Amino acid sequence: MVNNAEEILPKYWYNIIPDLPKPLPPPRDPLGAEFSRIDLLRTILPKEVLRQQLTIERYIKIPDEVRERYLAIGRPTPLLRAKRLEEYLGTPAKIYFKFEGATPTGSHKINTALPQAYFAMEEGVEHVVTETGAGQWGTATALAATMYGMKSTIFMVKISYEQKPMRKSIMQLYGGEVYPSPTDLTEFGKKIRNERPDHPGSLGIAMSEAIEYALNNHLKYLVGSVLDVVILHQSVIGQETMAQLDELGEEPDVLIGCVGGGSNFGGFAFPFIGNGRGKKYVAVASAEIPKFSTGEYKYDFPDSAGLLPLVKMITMGNNYVPPPIYAGGLRYHGAAPSLSLLMKEGIVGWREYNENQIFEAAQIFMRTQGIVPAPESSHAIRAVIEEALEAKKTGRKETIVFNLSGHGLLDLPNYDSMMRRIVKNEQR
């Protein structure tokens, strides 16, 4: 393992856009639109965030201030070998995982919250707003905003707000104002509540509320996933992992990560793809939100109200209402445009798993490695287990590396409810 943090932590973010196999379809306004969604981005996003979203530069320098913050929160995060998992499975494969749960907020989300908050602060912004699904992005935003002396308002998907009360608490402790979405604070939220008072909410709805709230109150909006600027910032994960593997003398064969919008998978895998390292890349989603198996590759709105520009992505439709599943971070209707393109080109493969499958994988990982993974990350673990067992069957001595995007210590109520449902189903 590399011990010099300064050497491992990259000085530049990596942007895969110029290295994609074909040009990325550009964002666009809908035909006959009453206003320009692209112009709206100029209003709500910090200027440097928007510039980075639109750039085709391969490498963008990480500001010294942001790099210092990365080091202060514990970057680089550990790359660990899952030896007890290997022994349990009896596989000849080596398994490594990048542990993003080692950050103060417990997930990878702080990697983009810090630079976005920094760029907002540089503009003199005093208050930022965003949405959150499972709560990890909201937690990261609340902390980053506080670090840079700003207030934060967070619209949290209602079902996650109810399922994860501790996430709400930690956001509030960090200084954030948290509201269960849909709310009565926005016209779009009121519309949804009038149509369905018991609506569980969705990330698309929460995004629309956050954007409307930002516009109405002249605030800046921070984006947590889907847009390529977020994957750009998350590239610190993959670049660190490459340096750590080099120090160990390991070359990865298979790289695996879960996908909600695509930021943790992209941040982890894209630097490897761009550098031609690795033979197989696997994006893992929830079978309960089957966007990879049933979604279409088309232009769609990232948010439910259609306030953001249309982007070409794999999507189930911006009006899709996901079921209130155990893994709130995977309840998004689409996937990032760059990831969607790589999947359509056959460079990135996919799998989808259901609750029972990921619960079994999570338990195996907890009992072998001692780490409680986030339910979202347990999807990646399931794919790792299957890949390792396939290596056992064929005798392949491959190296599997996955991104454990967050810990699950604040997701224990979700695991508790999973246990109850599984036991109940077994007794039938």
TrEMBL record:
GO CC terms, sorted: cytoplasm
Lyase found in the keyword field: yes
Alphabetical list of InterPro entries matching this protein: Trp_synth_b-like, Trp_synth_b_CS, Trp_synth_beta, Trp_synth_beta/beta-like, TrpB-like_PALP, TrpB-like_PALP_sf
Keywords: Amino-acid biosynthesis, Aromatic amino acid biosynthesis, Lyase, Pyridoxal phosphate, Tryptophan biosynthesis
Chemical reaction(s) catalysed: (1S,2R)-1-C-(indol-3-yl)glycerol 3-phosphate + L-serine = D-glyceraldehyde 3-phosphate + L-tryptophan + H2O
Pathway(s) served: Amino-acid biosynthesis; L-tryptophan biosynthesis; L-tryptophan from chorismate: step 5/5
Domain Tryptophan synthase beta chain-like PALP, residue spans: 74-406
GO molecular function, one term: tryptophan synthase activity
EC number(s) reported in the record: 4.2.1.20
Residues that bear N6-(pyridoxal phosphate)lysine: K109
Cofactor or coenzyme needed: pyridoxal 5'-phosphate
Subunit annotation: Tetramer of two alpha and two beta chains.
UniProt record similarity statement: Belongs to the TrpB family.
Function as written in the Swiss-Prot or TrEMBL entry: The beta subunit is responsible for the synthesis of L-tryptophan from indole and L-serine.
Family matches, as HAMAP family: Trp_synth_beta
Designated name of the protein: Tryptophan synthase beta chain
